[in-house]
Amino acid sequence: MASEQFSFKGFAEQPFYQGVNQRLVDSLTVKPGQRIVDLACGTGLLTRLILERLQGAKDTLVIGIDQSAVSLGLAMRDLKSAPGVMVQFVQTQVEHLSSTVQGSVDAVFLGNGIHLIPDKKQLVAEVFGILRPGGTFAFNSTFFEGGVPPESEQYYRRWMSKALRSLKSTYGLMPQRNKVEARRQLSPQEYRDILEQQGFSVTKQELVPVEFTLEGHLGIARYEDFVAGAMPGVPLEMASQVLQEAARQSYEELKLTFVPRNWLQVVAVRP
Ligand SMILES: C[S@@+](CC[C@H](N)C(=O)[O-])C[C@H]1O[C@@H](n2cnc3c(N)ncnc32)[C@H](O)[C@@H]1O
């Protein structure tokens, strides 16, 4: 059961995470009268950054879409609107984009969620369909082929094997591996190919190096979707607790102050 205790909020507040998402939102050209969609908006980090960027732009509309009622509730509670900007939140799946948004829009953002969408071709077609000619689609993700640089692999191996050992020794449990949905991570070229096949012109594709902190790993280990994906079938409290403790120990043993990670950032334009 989704709850605020295991929401994305704690992770979304991490400065390194705000920085990498600010970079994505900075690709937005601000003009009055724009209509902007924040897809998979979660607890509303990008929505807030978009609103801040729209300061001074009149008659704009921002639509946040997410499947999680808990996340949308937190986004609505914390967001302060800017004058002249209207914000709407819709609880639905991003796959239903064209039937959710009426009329064309100027920009679609999808922060840290594209890797979660099984049919990326269909999603990109939906985004293309609602954008006006000249409109932009900007997304980012660290779950792509290349997200974990070789120097960080040791940390991730240690973190997961420690967490699994502790789950077994403390609670006598093992995750149900057969429940994990096989999600292959795409390469930057594969994302580019999908966009271009749909008719988009890719104007920016970059790898952004990020210093992931212990607070970040503790935050992600308190996020329901991550915990359930890392340890399927294990009660959330137990899985989260062993993941947090294993992260602390791994940082200490490897004497780390941060773990390098790459974010993929892509901006594409509908010609
Ligand atoms: C990692 S969070 C990112 C939230 C926000 N965009 C950010 O960058 O802080 C991923 C979000 O995708 C949402 N999500 C995943 N699959 C979805 C789908 N098919 N339709 C709508 N939302 C989805 C989840 O509910 C979650 O809020």
Which helices and strands appear, and what pairs or packs with what?
Elements: H1 9-12, H2 15-25, E1 35-39, H3 45-53, E2 60-66, H4 69-78, E3 85-91, H5 97-100, E4 105-111, H6 120-130, E5 131-141, H7 153-171, H8 188-198, E6 201-212, H9 214-220, H10 224-230, H11 236-253, E7 259-269
Parallel strand pairs: 1-2, 1-4, 2-3, 4-5
Antiparallel strand pairs: 5-7, 6-7
Helix pairs in contact: 2-3, 7-11, 9-11
Characterize the structure shown.
The structure is a single chain. 40% of the residues are buried. This protein is of the alpha/beta class and 271 residues long. It has 11 helices and 7 strands. The chain is globular, with a radius of gyration of 19 Å. α9 (214-220) packs antiparallel against α11 (236-253). The chain has helices at 9-12, 15-25, 45-53, 69-78, 97-100, 120-130, 153-171, 188-198, 214-220, 224-230, 236-253; strands at 35-39, 60-66, 85-91, 105-111, 131-141, 201-212, 259-269. The longest helix has 19 residues, at 153-171. Strands 3-2-1-4-5-7-6 form a 7-stranded mixed sheet. The mean pLDDT is 94. It has a domain at 4-149 and 181-212 and 260-269: Rossmann fold (3-Layer(aba) Sandwich), CATH 3.40.50. S-adenosylmethionine binds at residues 8, 12, 21, 40-42, 45-46, 66-68, 71, 93-95, 111-113, 116-117.
